[in-house]
Design a protein that fits this description.
Elements: H1 4-19, H2 34-46, H3 67-76, H4 90-107, E1 113-117, H5 120-134, E2 139-143, H6 149-157, E3 161-164, H7 174-182, E4 186-192, H8 204-210, E5 217-221, H9 236-242, E6 250-253, E7 266-270, H10 306-318, H11 326-347, E8 351-353, E9 361-366, H12 371-387, E10 393-398, E11 415-422, H13 428-440
Parallel strand pairs: 2-3, 2-4, 4-5, 5-6
Antiparallel strand pairs: 1-7, 6-7, 8-9, 9-11, 10-11
The structure holds pyridoxal-5'-phosphate.
The site of pyridoxal-5'-phosphate (PLP) has 14 residues, from helix 5.
Length: 443
């Protein structure tokens, strides 16, 4: 699970870093003999985990950070910069500005206001907070398959929130949306570019067309799916949706989902840089070391891990955010793995898939006469597969959204528990046949 060479590299880099502080008189960190003992204890405790790093883990939305991300993060731990202000994170704030500019560049924005956050939740919170400032009293709307965080954030911000039904494609129902827009009460529409549950992408081209008739802002929740803008082997209709991301007013993308980062790295981007005025505040403690922009002046969170920015910057050096190159190839491979699994499910009489995967999430279930029997059977396979070290996930899907080819199954429940696989590791494309053989042996 790890490469010994990596630790040699880390100590080489640490020597370079410590050269930068040569002028200071040497001092010893207080020695504590417990460190080794406790660290071994931690290693023992951490064995109690699913093997997230291994291709056999094909369950939840978890993608291992790349080696460069882990090493750059660890290296910066010896400084432990705080990107709230240049006072606490001079070098790492600069790296954050550069890395975030590259993310905005991926969207096609030449100008932007944005920064990293601790994750997608906080990034979305900032987007909806600005939404509320710009359209006081107006509603936030999101599809019923949007992340539950939007409804909860709206509650926290005391903004009125409304849900829009999905159709059998698992995306926002455009007729229902237009009916709602006609009432003129929607201030900001949350468009999900890759739902967390099933990986579907809301119909952005049609939604943008509706902006000609009705006034509303568009916030893209692309926490999971945003990087797929760089993939060029998705279906044409999916790629058309990603191609229009630059039309949005604000965008959330999580580098800690598909961007090869350790947890603690989300990103919020605004197209209109003047929204910075809503962040204006005085800090009696910080912002003294430089007249340049301190990231805390344009973010709601105060202390933030500068290490997250260092790690993202370093990763983007190896994997530039471009349509050609290794990063985009890896995203294509994840989608390819999902398509392979989807085709094997379709070819097998004992299983049924929910729908063709738009990105890299596959939802399927053992075929039974009724929904309740399918739910039981899914749970069984989930358990049996885990015993063989194949780790899947599960999803409760609303019966009313099931597609036509499920219509012969007796609908005796309001939802059905399905199997869910997020095939986020590029290795999955080579391992999916073996994973499938093991799953089939659980029937
Ligand atoms: C993961 C996710 C979130 C929440 O982000 P965190 O990084 O888990 O806080 C929000 N929206 C979508 C679409 C997501 O996939």
């Amino acid at each position: 699970m790890y490469n010994k060479n990596a630790l040699t590299l880390l100590s080489k880099a640490l020597a370079v870093l410590s050269d930068g502080f040569d002028e200071l008189p040497p001092f010893e960190e207080t020695k504590n003999l417990q460190v080794e003992k406790v660290l071994m204890l931690v290693a023992e405790k951490m064995k109690n985990n699913f093997p997230y790093f291994h291709p056999y883990y094909a369950g939840q939305m978890l993608k291992p950070p790349h080696e460069i991300a882990r090493l750059a993060y660890m290296l910066s731990m010896w400084i432990n910069p705080n990107n709230h202000a240049l006072d606490g994170g001079r070098a790492s704030s600069q790296l954050e500005k550069e890395a975030v500019r590259e993310m905005a560049g991926m969207i096609g924005w030449k100008r932007h206001l944005g920064h990293l956050t601790s994750g997608g939740t906080f990034a979305n919170l900032e987007a909806l907070w600005i939404a509320g400032q710009l359209h006081p009293g107006k509603k936030i709307a999101a599809s019923e398959l949007a992340h539950y965080t939007h409804e909860r954030i709206s509650q926290v911000l005391k903004l009125p929130f409304t849900k829009i039904a999905c159709d059998e494609n698992g995306t926002m129902d455009l007729h229902k949306l237009e009916k709602l827009l006609k009432r003129g009460t929607i201030g900001t529409l949350v468009v999900t570019m890759g739902t967390t549950g099933i990986g579907t992408v809301d119909p952005l081209p049609e939604i943008i067309a509706l902006q000609k008739k009705y006034t509303f802002r568009i916030h893209l929740d692309a926490a999971y799916g945003g990087y797929f803008r760089l993939a060029d082997q998705l279906s044409l209709s999916t790629m058309r949706k990603f191609a229009l991301m630059q039309k949005a007013d604000s965008i959330v993308i999580d580098p800690h989902k598909h961007g090869l980062q350790p947890y603690g790295c989300g990103c919020i981007l605004f197209k209109d840089t003047t929204v910075g005025k809503f962040y204006k505040h005085q800090s009696p403690y910080t912002y003294f070391s430089s007249k340049n922009l301190h990231l805390g002046e344009i973010s709601l969170e105060c202390s933030r891990a500068g290490a997250a920015a260092v790690s993202l910057w370093a990763t983007q050096k190896i994997f530039p955010l471009s349509r050609k190159g290794e990063f985009s190839k890896r995203l294509n491979d994840s989608h390819k793995a999902a398509m392979k699994l989807y085709e094997m499910i379709n070819a097998h009489p004992g299983f049924i898939a929910l729908q063709r995967p738009e990105l890299d999430i596959v939802i399927w279930a053992p075929l039974e006469k009724s929904l309740s029997a399918m739910s039981r059977s899914s749970k069984n396979i989930f358990k049996k597969a885990a015993k063989k070290n194949i780790h899947l996930a599960m999803l409760n899907y609303p019966a009313k959204l099931l597609p036509k080819h499920w219509k012969n199954i007796i609908c005796d429940d309001s939802q059905v528990t399905c199997l869910r696989s997020c095939l986020m590791k590029p290795e999955h494309v080579d391992w999916i046949d073996e994973i499938w053989r093991m799953v089939v042996s659980c029937l």
